[in-house]
Amino acid sequence: MPLLKSQLTTKFPFRNPHVNTLYKFFANKEKPNYERRRITTWDNDFIDLDFLTSNSFSAVLLIHGLEGSSESSYMASTANFLKDHGYDVISMNLRSCSGEDNNILKTYHAGKTDDVEFVINYLIENYNYRDIILCGFSLGGNLILKYLGEFNVGVPETVKGGIAVSVPIDLASAQVELSKLKNKIYMKEFLRTLKSKVILKASKFPEFNPDKKRIAKASTFRDFEEIYTAPVFGFDGPEDYWAKASSKPYLPNIDRKTLLINAKDDSFLSLDCFPYEIAENSDNFYLMTPKYGGHVGFVTTFNDEAFWIENQIVNFIQDKLNIYS
């Protein structure tokens, strides 16, 4: 129990995971009419939140994936879909991802749940939301799953549950998968923006003095974690970071209804990212593994208007969490 069956049906060429992933990534979705609010953090930094409101007492906090933002196509389509169904939406831009570099050397990583906690507490203290639902994509999904399991009974009652999509819940094995030839185009793009951020940080913070030749040669996430994530955030190395930031060990601790949707053909994910046994032994953690979908894709046809993943999100909120706008 709770394994949920998928009703996703798709047609050629969207049974190819790369077509599905890239089509959704480049989809020309209508940009949400966000209202940006900048909040100051405890460490003299800022986080930009983009609000799309329907004057609802129920809000969905969306968190994007690696090097994404509130304007990523999957974030935009989900935000608009949720608003059309009457929910307030808050799209959280992780540090350095809102179009402006953040103030301090530290940006974000896959396990940095203190920022998630901070944003949730801000929403509870400043808005009259009766319900808050968490929804994250890829790295953002890892953040919400880890937050729900790590904080467990300490999660505010206002937070009713979560939905996570295309999540590398086991970072160590997922990075091996991403380093394979089949994912070369994605790895190159991720590292292009990550490298530019590291170079910018090095120019702003002289005490951070990475080897620029090493930055230029970096071709895997291991390289990046060794250059930036591990030393800046105080991990002992890439393996230590992957072990401590992965959400998988925290899944059995989740005490409110939460759904993970990982496509079986997602080229980013290893077999360890499909936690069937954990779901079968949980009363709260649900798992859905459609045969097709790619990575944060789930497109069914050209000019897709089925909004399959968006419908799954709303259906879970309404059918399992019993929250209607």
From TrEMBL:
<dbReference type="InterPro" id="IPR029058">
    <property type="entry name" value="AB_hydrolase_fold"/>
</dbReference>
<protein>
    <submittedName>
        <fullName>AB hydrolase-1 domain-containing protein</fullName>
    </submittedName>
</protein>
<dbReference type="Pfam" id="PF00561">
    <property type="entry name" value="Abhydrolase_1"/>
</dbReference>
<dbReference type="InterPro" id="IPR012020">
    <property type="entry name" value="ABHD4"/>
</dbReference>
<dbReference type="InterPro" id="IPR000073">
    <property type="entry name" value="AB_hydrolase_1"/>
</dbReference>
<feature type="domain" description="AB hydrolase-1">
    <location>
        <begin position="59"/>
        <end position="271"/>
    </location>
</feature>
<comment type="similarity">
    <text>Belongs to the AB hydrolase superfamily. AB hydrolase 4 family.</text>
</comment>
<dbReference type="GO" id="GO:0016787">
    <property type="term" value="F:hydrolase activity"/>
</dbReference>
<keyword id="KW-0378">Hydrolase</keyword>
<dbReference type="InterPro" id="IPR050960">
    <property type="entry name" value="AB_hydrolase_4_sf"/>
</dbReference>
